[in-house]
Structure formats: C-alpha cells, structure tokens
Amino acid sequence: MAETKKKAKKKAPAPKGAGKKACGVEGCKRAYRAKGFCFFHYRKWRRGEIEGRPRRYHTCGKPDCKKKVAGHGLCQEHFDAWKKSRKGSEAAATAPAEAKPVEAPAA
Question: What is the reported pTM?
C-alpha cells in the first residue's frame, strides 16, 4: 500500500528590509514583509480581516458589504439593484409631455 507522507509546515517567508523594519500593527514585533506588515498580518490584510486599514481591493460602498467593486463603487449585486431602480425612475421622467404648439414669429 502507499505510504502516507507527512506534510512539512511552511516556514515564514524571509523578512525584507534587511530586518530593520518591523510590522506596522501595534504590539507586533515580527519583521517587515510587505505593505507595512509582517507575513502574518499581511495575509490577514489580504483577506480583509484587519480593521482600520485600507482593504486590498476597492469594496462595495454599501455598509457591511465587502464584495469587490463592479461599477459606481458598488458590487455587482448592489450595482444591478441601483441600475434597475434608475430605469424605473427614468421611464417615469421620460413620459411623453404634452406637445406645445409652435408660435409663428411676429413680423
């Protein structure tokens, strides 16, 4: 039968900045890796788990929605709802108005 191999744990990536920089998160003493974070906090930042820091991607402008922006600062779901609501209001605004008779110029 096939032998099962144990997976070796991955080591933390080598620090950048010649070890002179530290992680930007308060209380963390790990070496700098990228974007002002150590490898641990950089991964958290990529997943959007660090509050109070700019997110990796532009996210939807609706509260509590962390989906990626599709258009006009909204995710695809909220953008489609916004577009649908605009179509309804545009139809009402473009309803045919009464035609006004054109007056002949005074001579």
Answer: 0.41
